[in-house]
Amino acid sequence: VRHNRLDHIVGPKDAWFGVVAAGKTYADVTEALASLGVHTPADLGIRLFKPAMISPLDGKTVREFADGLEEIVVVEDKRPFLETQLRDLLYGGANQPRILGKRDDEDRPLLPLSGALEAALVEPVLRARLLQKIGADRLARPRRRIEVTIADDETPLPGRTPFFCSGCPHNRSTTVPQGSTAGGGIGCHGMALLIPTRATDGITHMGGEGAQWVGAAPFVNEPHRFQNLGDGTLFHSGSLAIRQAVSAATNITYKILYNGVVAMTGGQVAAGEMPVPELTRMLEAEGVARTVVVTDDPDKYPPDARFAPGTKVWHRDRLDHAQRLLREVEGVTVLIYDQACAAELRRSRKRGKVESPGYRIYINEAVCEGCGHCGAISNCLSVHPVDTAFGTKTRIHQESCNFDFTCIDGNCPAFVKVVPAEVAAGKAPLPHPEVPEPGQRVTEANILMVGIGGTGVVTANQLLATAALIEGKHATSLDQTGLSQKAGPVVSNLKITTELSGESNRVGSGAADTYLVFDLLVGTNANNLAKVDRDRTTAIISTGRIPTGAMVRRAGTEFPNLDRFRAAINPTTKAEDNLWIDADHLARQLYGDQTATNLIVIGAAYQRGLIPLRQDAIVDAIELNGAATEMNRSAFAVGRLVAHDPAAAANLLAPAPPVPIATQEIPASLANRSPELVEAVDRWARHLTGYQSRRYSNRYLEFVEATSEAERTVDPSSDALGIAVANNLGKLMAYKDEYEVARLHRSSEFKARVVEQFGEGSRVTYLLAPPSLKFVGLKSKIGVRSAWARPSFAGLAAMRRLRGTWLDPFGYTKERRMERRLIDEYRATIEHVASHLTGDRLGLATEMALLPDMIRGYSEIKAAAVEKYHLDLARLLDRFDS
Description:
six-stranded mixed β-sheet; 882 residues; 24 strands; alpha/beta; seven-stranded parallel β-sheet; 14% strand
């Protein structure tokens, strides 16, 4: 190192202040000095030392660097390593300088001992030390950090946390029976630790799975534990964990989560892997008392498969039974959950190695009650809550669906199986609008891109970096992915410069020029907002609302209002220049593919002059990437059009199919009320006419009118109670019995939606579990082809006139009697409230009127919701009357 002069010293002989940093940290120091306005360190008497080899340091070079310095600050990640060597080498020398690093000259913390250093952490340290000898006027002013304030009545915006991929086998396999606990471990299944309801506790290194329980078991009353163990870890070192548990005669069930690949790090083959039958024999040889295999396809094992004696092979639907059985067996038992990794299957399907199912699952949103049962049992990120005019419903996100289809087990008749029509040869060409070049474009930029793992954020970074190289510019980038491939957050840093700067490849605090937000939740993360600046950063934000795992698991967990995100991003950026676009909606409508979202946002940023690259360089990079080139080129052009002429971009979208709906006039007294009340009354009145009859709808209108009149008597400006009654009485009166489900399934609107998404000629099979068949023991849904179902649906829909009469064959069930009773109870409650209404009781009355919104679902799910409704109603009614 000394002979080849590899150590790097920069600075004058008369310097008084020195900084030591190696590797990546040296770039952080360079950037920190630049943010201080110090582009030529020699001007301020600063000397820099970048050692090429951090151990051992060359004493001669260190002494040469330190000669004449008064103070040295050592900047390094984690514990003091260079700092200790510097002290040893310089101790006792003539004119030894002060050496600071993790602590200052008064023994106070200076630089952190944990985490990664970045320029934003180094800059204030260097500023404080330099101000000892130079005036503040010689340094750039410190950046003002803008804190996003939250109102007292608001909860913080939710974060984007990692979650199981759609169809991930660990989504089901990590559940445990009531009363049991599982130990966590290394692998994708470790995300069970993030789900409070999973009863998963603790984590360990690879090969140590279950060691905590082996040590704790003799000293506690808990008789048994489960331990999650991925197959990659098993073949690496986890078999030793099983062996030590057997040796200790511990009551434990190892849940070997066998998905065929090391999924957490990209789908590699697990070294030393063996097929499941052979694995059961190995476990028997190790002394495992009993083994059960559960799988999504028990028939996939060959007839001559040699499982260990006594091994049971069951369908995954018997997981709970298998776990309850094994936890009663003394000693070490094993449950092997055998199902292929969903992400790897998706890759294999894209590469043509695995055939895709010939059908898709679709939800008729009109039939859906938005109860969230399908999301609760599948725990799947492809089951999205969606807002509609008739409340929150559920939609299958087809682009991310990995064909696990657990969601169809939801207690709901809204699911249908669709065999898509063959794609016509003459498919319409993708739009490539011509847009004039931006009037002015930056020449250099720090670009920060944030989004969700698996949606192409890293690819977007790679495309722009490649385009920069094509154009002859310099690009330095950093992708911070973490658990991003599991729907976690991704942060991509990109610096495009005309000259090689030597600065860090991370966009520093307040240093972003362009902020590309592909996901609202990641875009409002405090750490990411710390990288933007009100006087420097322009943001292009996609407003698509992608639910988190928590929103899928818990029905009724709403996505925050867009205004909340504006209040977080606009004050910290150049709000007047920001662009908010629903790129996600454009991508779905134009391409049927959400991955086009990022290129739409990039196109908009380019048109605003925020990308320091030529159009041809970006297009060439898209071509070089070689994936979906036609779609990505089109999406880039559409994004440019959105920024140039939003109205013209909207015209690219096909109009929504017309919705045939019954007519119904509303009373003049209601027609003059607030637009929200008029809209709600009109919507439900028309719906109830189609649901039953005009007479039935008139009953609804008369009641809403009377309630609204009572509300206006105590507060002439208020319509809150009227709106609540209009929506919730309509909901209760339009309960979904057999007649209504049949009417909605055969509606022309539903047929138009299927054709719009899957093409003309798509074949539909309805997945139904009629209540009448449940009584004779039907436990799963049956599929009824459209050709057979539609005549029956037509007959049932025509019979709706019998609803509620003594001739109604379905009206005598417990559920139907409950639904009719709810209508009468609600009307009686509102009549009581309206007759005793005062100004100070209006808010409480409105709260009661809104309660039926919690009544969702079918059969036992609805019954449980009704029970809670009655409890809440009684509590509020007591408050109202007192």
